[in-house]
Write a structure and sequence with these properties.
Order of helices and strands: EHEHHEHEHEEHEEHEEHEEHEEHH
Distance between the termini: 31 Å
Helix content: 25-40%
Structural class: alpha/beta
Number of strands: 14
Radius of gyration: 19 Å
CATH class of one domain: Alpha Beta
Strand order of the largest sheet: 3-2-1-4-5-7-11
Low-confidence stretches: 1-14
CATH superfamily of one domain: NAD(P)-binding Rossmann-like Domain
Number of helices: 11
Mean pLDDT: 89
Shape: globular
Strand content: 15-25%
């Protein structure tokens, strides 16, 4: 076994047939909907599960508009916490667990996300699912500096990061069971950006300001360096994790560039010719964050980021002007 991997279960020896359904949880979300589109482009049969129904939620409707027109897509309206998930999981070879922590009461976030993940894992185990790809986060490392690989201690500083870290550990405990057919690949994503990014995130706000000409409000804006990964690279990592012939692993997934707020503004000006102004008092200086070692992802999954920050900003700005033109996540 490679020193870069953590053994969670048997290595995959065969890739699933594309007529065998795959399940994507959080399918109406940012990463989930981009992954669904990519899977459909690749010819897979996809079940997309989300608690938000596109008939009643405008964001879910926009994100899944393309998928719902595809004959190989089935939408599953369910909440992972407390619902019988066996109909959604039956016959699936691979499950992409992208549904993140989400609860209006912060104190309940950890409990609900861990319970939901446990419900999914038990169902996958009983249904003989072979591979679960879990969308984790580099936020679980906390406010650290230096170069963090997947063995770096977890010190989550937010409730969401704590919930994600605990669910990742739970997935690992199921995968370590020698009687379970399930193997788990956890992808610790850096900050994902691109088409369909939630509007409150920094790059989405920056792109919106560039699109509308309005100033970027600095209130509650992180100013320190951040590591970003474009959504098509994030999707490519998930696709690789589903079929990689490895024992299960925990790996970092990041893009090639780190940028603070000033560098983001400079990139927008120097590469796209748009000078975004700012408004409001500058926020306090926040601590530097780590760069993330993705060498294990390269060795185990063949992952390499393709999209540099300037190109990613250009694509996201183009999408903001024409939301129908979304990358399929595989180019």
């Amino acid at each position: 076994m490679s020193a870069d991997s953590q053994f969670y279960g048997p290595a995959l020896t065969t890739a699933p047939d594309r007529d065998t359904p795959v399940l994507v949880t959080g399918a109406a979300g940012f990463l989930g909907s981009n992954l669904v589109d990519a899977l459909l482009v690749l010819g897979h049969t996809v079940r997309g599960l989300d608690r938000r129904h596109p008939d009643h939620d405008p964001t879910a409707a926009a994100h899944l508009a393309r998928a719902r027109q595809h004959p190989r897509f089935t939408f599953v309206h369910a909440d992972l916490d407390g619902h019988d998930l066996s109909p959604a999981v039956t016959r699936c070879h691979t499950v992409y667990h992208l549904a993140g922590p989400d609860h209006p009461i912060p104190e309940a976030t950890v409990t609900t996300h861990v319970t939901a993940t446990a419900n999914l894992l038990v169902t996958c185990d009983l249904a003989h699912v072979r591979r679960l790809v879990y969308a984790s986060t580099t936020d679980l490392y906390g406010p650290t500096t230096g170069y963090a690989d997947h063995t770096h201690p977890a010190r989550p500083a937010t409730v969401d990061a704590l919930a994600t870290a605990m669910a990742e550990q739970l997935a690992g405990s199921y995968g370590r069971d020698p009687h379970s057919p399930l193997s788990v690949v956890a992808l610790r994503y850096a900050g994902i950006y691109g088409p369909r990014q939630p509007p409150h995130h920094l790059i989405a706000r920056l792109v919106a300001a560039a699109h509308t000409g309005a100033p970027l409000e600095l209130y509650n804006t992180p100013t320190g360096p951040r590591r970003y990964v474009y959504v098509t690279d994030a999707v490519r990592a998930a696709l690789a994790a589903a079929t990689a012939p490895v024992t299960s692993a925990v790996v970092n997934i990041s893009g090639p560039d780190t940028a603070n707020l000033t560098q983001l503004l400079d990139t927008m000006r120097d590469n796209l010719g748009i000078d975004v102004t700012t408004a409001g008092p500058p926020p306090p200086r926040d601590p530097a964050t780590a760069s993330y070692d993705v060498s294990a992802a390269y060795r185990l999954l063949g992952y390499q980021p393709h999209i540099r920050l300037a190109e990613g900003l250009r694509r996201q700005l183009a999408w903001s002007r024409n939301p129908a033109a979304v990358d399929a996540g595989i180019r």
